[in-house]
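Researcher: Next sequence.
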Amino acid sequence: MNKSRREFLRRSGQAALGASMLGLLDPSRLAFADSEETRDCPTLLCVYLRGGADSLNAIVPYGDPLYYQLRPTIGIPAEADGEDPGVIKLNKMFGLNPAMAPLHPLFEKGLVAPIMNVGSTHTTRSHFDAQDFMEYAAPGVRTLTDGWLARYLLATTKGNGDSELRALAMQSLLPRSIRGEYPVLAVPDADPDQALTAFGKLYESCNEDVAMQRAQMAKEKAKDGMDQMAGKDDASKGERENRHSIVTSGANTVRTLKRLRAITSAGASAPGATYPASRFGEQLRSLSRVIKARVGLEIAAVDVRGWDHHARQGSTDGVYHRMLSDVSASLAAFVTDLGPLVDKTCVLVMSEFGRTVRENGNNGSDHGHGGFMLALGGMVKGNHVYGKWTGLEESKLYEGRDMPVHTDFRLVFAEVLKRVFKYDALDKDFFPGYKPDDKPLDFLKQL
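Model: Next structure:
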């Protein structure tokens, strides 16, 4: 293998890696579709709180005295005490953590719906397994390679009628929920201009190498004769096809990222939409601009990491409170920023499992079972706490220590797909082997 070919393969490998990080787009399948149907499509944003976010210190069961017995130091006070804020009461049993104060006005307007005791039916307390099972929407199944959102995208694709921005992750790595056969754009964490420049140079170098290889092949054919070159030409056919795919797809990814950069850099936030100066706040600000640009965004995903609070979780002064404050303020700004488009937007916040009911000895909590979700947007039937609640008595807990799962997360996913996109996942084997025992929670309106 000559030096130029080795160098090309090295660069091609870098390009392929870079493209996979960015969510390689296949131009033969996607082309921007500026139709009225595309522009008016609804949007689902999935926010994943990675690490097992505690449900009981977010949607606080202040009306159950056992809560304070089991959480004497990390429990959220039922009433304000001096500078220590108390629970924001939603009903006689539940209240919001005061860190979630920005969401309370939205709850009262019917734009926020908490769901309690929701999660996976699988027994695992492993972050990795629980996240896989949830994002593939198949507890215990390890053979799936497409996430539940990726399966929806593939099942409903219009081919060249899809927007090139139909689905995206506002982060450098695609969450497993949207990894699969359908191409999805992942946005680099680095400064967009720098990422575009670096990827563009890599693409150009590959493109130059393709031209060089073609020129070299032509010279060898002219020198050695067509018959002698036939076998060499056949052997290199697959390599040339791979190079062409990398170059063409890389060009499409760069073009799409440039278009996305132009959208997210333009415009201003709506009055009253004050985003925190945080990574999550900036991600939601960018997503709001994509939605308002009406370019056909259907599925978006964002991860918020760091919810595994075995220590220093705290009450209203711990790390959990600070993180929850950022998430809540960012979500409230996002909903406000969308204006009328909030009526066609659904935000679903989730985590792989909840935490132990009883606090541990390190001012924190450990891996649990049942957790919580939050649904936000104009499609939500809010001002109500959803999910079956059976209390905190030991006999009612899962294995005597965790919140039980009374609502399978697949029931929530199925309702979201049906109400937001009119896609009935329960009519087919979309969730392998799943036959729901319960009726839908009915926490969403029909669009």
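Model: The domain at 43-198+269-427 is CATH 3.40.720 (Alkaline Phosphatase, subunit A). The chain is about 40% helix and 10% strand.
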